[in-house]
Design goal:
Layout: E1 2-6, H1 20-30, E2 34-40, E3 56-61, E4 64-69, H2 79-94, H3 96-103, E5 107-110, H4 118-128, E6 131-136, H5 142-148, H6 155-170, E7 173-176, H7 182-187, E8 195-197, H8 204-208, H9 215-226, E9 230-235, H10 244-252, E10 259-264, H11 270-279, E11 285-288, H12 296-300, E12 305-309, H13 323-330, E13 335-338, H14 345-349, E14 352-354, H15 360-372, H16 375-392, H17 395-408
Parallel strand pairs: 1-2, 1-5, 2-4, 5-6, 6-7, 7-8, 9-10, 9-12, 10-11, 12-13, 13-14
Antiparallel strand pairs: 3-4
Helix pairs in contact: 1-17, 10-15, 13-16
């Protein structure tokens, strides 16, 4: 099949996020399909941007084709980002014939976070006799309404709502990354039999060919073990959404526990977190700089347990699938997850403990329970998590599942 996937923010391992389009495209191309990804030349989630001087540029890489649409740079979530979105959508429309000539699609997938690209995806599918799929990442306009406080009558929200409803009415299939969206999408016009779940997952190659983390990191972890401490870690972004201030507060309550905490990563809250630990005279926590994605597997495997949390958020009622969680589970380590969501993968996989978010006392209680388990019981938790990920969140499986959906419509 010729597959055309439209994702404004699509990246690659050497560029940075968003990785899911690259993962799927690599697997689909290995299966013999011709894959084309249409993306914007600038996206805030990437570390490195493609070099695009002309309105549209084709680039062959990693076994498939990127079609870059030139868009302006922006910072933050203001008018610059809206201008960038408008530029990408205008480019899709203006370059539609050229894109179709390049790709000759049999399947067209609208996969950007926002739903406005569905109009052009539908038009491209119609012009080429292809099937049209809408892939849900986040629920827009619900996300800016609940996160940003926008009212339903705001012109931009009304525009997004019209596009979302259009997608549900016209798509041949809807693929959701979120597991608990059925009621929402059917309320907005989708026939339930058109809804399919293909969640996020792990890229197995990262785990089969890992890179060693910095030796000094491993030395610090081993040193704490020699002192009789269990080593608990969080890796990833240090932002407001990650609710790490409650994690710091928990370290201050853990004096009677033989544990040492590691916070590995960077972000806008990092200096405040370091200051919080200093103000609370916390001595059993170490802050480390982020490591590369390839170094994550061996680093995670060096800890005794792994933690992740998020601030309480009403949108999580539709379910979650954090890539960080799948990495933790793949590392075969027990997980403590402080997230309240419509699904609970940790409990379902029997790979750790789920606790309320932003609750230091609950985290300490969970640590007590976990440390009271035998080494064999904790090891079994870890193995449960790894088995679950390999069976349900492995892109080898997810890519084939997506192809089956394409063949059925």
């Amino acid at each position: 099949m010729n597959i055309l996937l439209i994702n404004h923010y699509a990246g690659a391992p050497d560029m940075g996020m968003e990785f899911r389009p690259w993962y799927l495209a690599r697997k689909w191309s290995e299966m013999g399909h011709q894959v084309f990804i249409v993306a914007a030349s600038f996206a805030h989630v990437r570390k490195n941007q493609p070099i695009v001087h002309e309105p549209i540029r084709q680039e062959e890489r990693d076994g498939f084709t990127y079609i870059w649409i030139k868009t302006p740079e922006y910072h933050g979530n203001g008018l610059g980002r809206i201008r960038n979105i408008y530029s990408f959508l205008r480019g899709l429309k203006k370059q539609r014939r050229r894109i179709l000539s390049m790709s000759k699609p049999e399947i067209v997938i609208a996969s950007s976070t926002y739903p406005l690209d569905n109009y052009q995806a539908k038009a491209m599918a119609q012009d080429s006799g292809a099937k049209y799929i809408y892939e849900i990442h986040d629920l827009w306009p619900l996300s800016p309404m609940e996160l940003g406080g926008y009212p339903s009558w705001h012109p931009f929200i009304m525009l997004l709502q019209k596009a979302e409803n259009f997608a549900y009415r016209h798509a041949d299939a809807v693929v959701s990354i979120l597991p608990c969206v059925k009621q929402h999408v059917t309320d907005h016009g989708l026939m339930p039999e058109k809804l399919h779940l293909v969640p996020n997952g792990i890229w197995l190659d990262d785990w089969q060919n890992p890179v060693s983390p910095p030796p000094e990191y491993l030395h610090q972890i081993e040193q704490k073990r020699k002192e009789g401490k269990s080593c608990i870690a969080y890796t990833g972004a240090h932002g407001i959404a990650n609710a790490l201030h409650s994690f710091i507060a928990a370290t201050a309550l853990s004096a009677e526990l033989a544990v040492h905490f590691f916070l590995i990563g960077d972000g806008p809250e990092k200096k405040l977190l370091e200051q919080q630990a200093q103000n609370m005279n916390v001595t059993n926590i170490t802050f480390l700089e982020p490591v590369s994605k390839k170094q994550i597997p061996l680093l995670l495997q060096s800890f005794d347990a792994l933690y992740l949390g998020l601030k309480a958020q009403s949108l999580f009622r539709f379910g979650i699938g954090p890539n960080k969680l799948f990495d933790y589970m793949m590392a075969a380590k027990p997980v403590i997850m402080a997230i309240d969501a419509g699904n609970d993968i940790v409990t379902e996989a029997a790979c750790g403990l789920t606790i309320p978010p932003e609750n230091p006392e609950a985290l300490i209680d969970a640590l007590r329970k976990m440390l009271a388990l035998s080494k064999e019981e904790r090891q079994q938790m870890g193995e449960n998590g790894k088995k679950y990920v390999l069976e349900h969140h492995n892109y080898d499986i997810l890519s084939r599942k997506f192809i089956q959906i394409m063949k059925q419509i």
